[in-house]
Inverse folding.
């Protein structure tokens, strides 16, 4: 590595000192898990003295913690540009690449670190772990041509129910309300659903999702309420609290869960089987949209795949991938409100008819309508901008207003972002974010929220709540070991 960048800007001694004060303030906010303020103060330090690689690397780390992977990547690259021998810059860039599923690029950065620090055991461990991931992906790609659907390989008849199993049981191979109540009680007591019933639920719900369009039309009668929940992220006990506060799903109490059911939280298996069970019980009154975390890359990195392998089998993890590929991408409520996990699009003129017919039985692509439905975010200023996440697009109030006008809609609801109060109303009330995982990852301190509206006026009403206790299993307990880089 060849040292520092020669094209640095002139900075006064006063600016240098003031920048250091800003950095220390930012560090304080970072330690307090207040990453928004940390980014603001690191940015102030950079404005005063744009020549310091550490400022960019620190801001990169704060952006990583906010899942702004695109910004994190840009900052880490700038740190490296300023100081090619600054090892933390390569660490941060590798973390951003890993978060975006760019494993080969991450591997290059880890290799650079190991060459610079050949005796650093932590760096070597991460390099070797990343190498394993790259090799595994290459192997899976090589055999993918001949790969059968996992669903076709499941032998339910050959799965015996052991005599010592006392958990919930399907009646005539069907989900009932009694089964769901027993399942939730079982999970609350840290029990486990028998693998035969778990596989049966997955196979049945896959068939159900396959019959649905990519955009599902939902009718809400004038005298009925309808609840929209945002990200759950494997926080099962907070999911149970939603049902305590708002009642169990039923034909008179319909729900839409808007993606990111799994990952990060370490009770993702419990969450997803609870949600899938209610989908089977009330197929016309319980709805689920795909999130960006219902994908192979996210599940490999953020814990769901590891959790399924730990609690069940690798085969089941592959089956989940097939099921997720069939999840609807968005829902249109009473032809007035569009609900998707991420947001709007990189071009004007998108019509609902286009969303209905998206070919979705695949992993999310890196661009296009499907990608943007899962990944995009709103921004306060008009126009569009590159995504802070490095995937999708950021869209302003003017973009939202044009989309709504083009499609005769009142407003859009999306999730995908942690909000301090569990929700945020933006774009003149036309773009609403709802996030239902309180104290996200046991660190963020945010509230959770859900939205209740009724068919007559479709006005959103918000309920917020705090996190509830859960068993002593930390978030990310099943995540890929390399993700400790982000901690």
């Amino acid at each position: 590595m060849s040292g520092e960048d020669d094209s640095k800007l002139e900075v006064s001694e006063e600016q240098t000192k003031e920048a250091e004060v800003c950095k220390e303030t930012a560090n304080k906010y970072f330690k307090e898990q207040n990453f928004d303020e940390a980014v603001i103060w690191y940015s102030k330090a950079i404005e005063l003295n744009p020549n310091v690689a550490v400022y960019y690397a620190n801001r990169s780390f704060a952006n990583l913690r906010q899942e702004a992977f695109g910004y994190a990547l840009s900052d880490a690259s700038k740190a490296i540009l300023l100081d090619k021998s600054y090892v933390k810059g390569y660490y941060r860039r590798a973390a951003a690449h890993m978060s975006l599923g760019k494993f080969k690029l991450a591997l290059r950065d880890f290799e650079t670190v190991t060459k610079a620090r050949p005796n650093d055991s932590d760096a070597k461990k991460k390099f070797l772990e990343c190498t394993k991931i790259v090799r595994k992906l290459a192997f899976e790609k090589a055999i993918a041509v001949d790969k059968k659907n996992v669903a076709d390989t499941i032998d339910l008849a050959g799965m015996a129910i052991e005599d010592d199993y006392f958990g919930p049981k399907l009646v005539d191979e069907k989900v009932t309300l009694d089964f769901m109540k027993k399942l939730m009680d079982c999970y609350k007591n840290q029990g486990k659903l028998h693998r035969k019933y778990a596989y049966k639920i997955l196979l049945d719900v896959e068939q159900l999702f396959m019959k649905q369009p990519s955009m599902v039309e939902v009718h809400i009668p004038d005298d009925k309420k309808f609840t929209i929940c945002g990200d759950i992220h494997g926080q099962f006990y907070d999911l149970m609290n939603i049902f305590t506060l708002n009642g169990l799903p039923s034909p008179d109490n319909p729900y839409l869960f808007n993606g990111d059911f799994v990952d990060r939280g370490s009770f993702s298996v419990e969450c997803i089987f609870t949600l899938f069970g209610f989908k089977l019980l009330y197929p016309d009154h319980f709805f689920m949209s795909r999130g960006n975390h219902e994908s192979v890359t996210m599940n490999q990195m953020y814990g769901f795949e590891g959790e399924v392998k730990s609690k069940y089998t690798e085969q089941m993890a592959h089956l989940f991938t097939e099921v997720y590929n069939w999840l609807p991408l968005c829902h249109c409520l009473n032809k007035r409100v569009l609900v998707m996990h991420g947001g709007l699009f990189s071009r004007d003129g998108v019509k609902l008819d286009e969303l209905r017919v998206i070919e979705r039985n695949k992993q999310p692509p890196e661009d296009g309508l499907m990608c943007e439905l899962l990944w995009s975010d709103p921004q306060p200023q008009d126009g569009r901008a590159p995504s802070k996440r490095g995937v999708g697009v950021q869209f302003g109030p003017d973009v939202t207003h044009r989309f709504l006008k083009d499609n005769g809609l009142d407003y859009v609801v999306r999730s995908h972002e942690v909000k301090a109060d569990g929700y945020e109303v933006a774009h003149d009330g036309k773009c609403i974010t709802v996030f239902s995982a309180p104290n996200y990852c046991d660190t963020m301190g945010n509230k959770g929220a859900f939205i209740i509206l009724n068919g007559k006026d479709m006005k959103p009403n918000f309920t917020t709540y705090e996190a509830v206790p859960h068993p002593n299993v930390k978030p990310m307990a099943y995540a890929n070991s390399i993700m400790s880089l982000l901690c």
